[in-house]
């Protein structure tokens, strides 16, 4: 009887030791995860609302920003909306005041805010600004019609000129263009209209020339071509040289003749658009958003021909003169981009 009891006890001990060994052999949770889940699985995207500040509905910022918002909401599961705004300067202020989580801006406006000059003269340097990615180049397009007689920049003297909404990126560009050509707004009759409104006025012969800083082709300019012969006034020679020497973020480029049906290619200046992101968004959220953008890049590219041509992982660093958000840096480093 004793031997039988001893045998049972030995069998129980063996079973207990086997169970302990199996428990120790079970695979451990990933050291970088919580309860065996990845960071992507534990991130509750529905808790975050991503407002993307864009620009007037007549420009490129709006459809391209709308495509980003659509990816965030429909593909990633964040709450998101695209907000029509006055563009660059307003968008910078929205980022700084918490009115938007992302915003499309021109890099020249960002440089002025970051270093407190130009439109941001006298303000504290906006060193809290962070970049998510570079987008595409904006072309400075000084648009007029054949009937105006305007052929070179200096011909703007005494003319009625739409320079953009006050303190918009377009208007900041217009100021710099006048300055580089040794002129000022006092040399023209300026109207602070966004370019959609200004081109409507041009159709009614109430404006002679309009500054349009955007990607090409611009739909509003193309619409003008249905009622008048478009002339794109060149930014070239000493004026362009002075501009690039004082403001190195400008780069010389050409608008091909077939874009607006002009008689020849037109020399002008370009400045890069970038996507800002709030520094207050957690690193893991910005990493997740950045990854989601490039995993759904075809949706972004489908928003406009300019996006199709220029927005890519390879171009994500171009023309960015401020620090990137750490969450974006993490993603780019994983892709081999420093």
Radius of gyration: 28 Å
Biggest beta sheet summary: 10 strands, mixed
| Cα end-to-end separation | 76 Å
Summed up, the helix count is 14
The count of strands amounts to 10
Second rung of CATH, namely the architecture of the largest domain = 3-Layer(aba) Sandwich
Helix percent band = 40-55%
Number of domains: 2
Structural class assignment: alpha/beta
Strand content: 15-25%
SSE sequence, one letter per element? HHEHEHEHEEHEHEHEHEHEHHHH
Nearest-integer average pLDDT: 89
- Regions with little confidence, pLDDT below 50 for 5+ residues: 1-38
Please name the fourth-level CATH homologous superfamily of the largest domain.
Periplasmic binding protein-like II
Q: Briefly, what CATH class of the largest domain?
A: Alpha Beta
CATH topology of the largest domain: D-Maltodextrin-Binding Protein, domain 2
Globular, elongated, flat, extended or rod-shaped: what is the shape? globular
Give a description of the structure.
The chain is of the alpha/beta class and 338 residues long. The chain folds into 2 domains: 47-136 and 273-334, Periplasmic binding protein-like II (D-Maltodextrin-Binding Protein, domain 2, 3-Layer(aba) Sandwich); 138-272, Periplasmic binding protein-like II (D-Maltodextrin-Binding Protein, domain 2, 3-Layer(aba) Sandwich), CATH 3.40.190. It contains 14 helices and 10 strands. Helix 6 links the parallel strand 5 (160-162) and strand 6 (189-191). The longest helix has 24 residues, at 2-25.
Label this structure with key terms.
alpha/beta, 41% helix, globular, 338 residues, single chain, disordered N terminus, ten-stranded mixed β-sheet, D-Maltodextrin-Binding Protein, domain 2, 2 domains
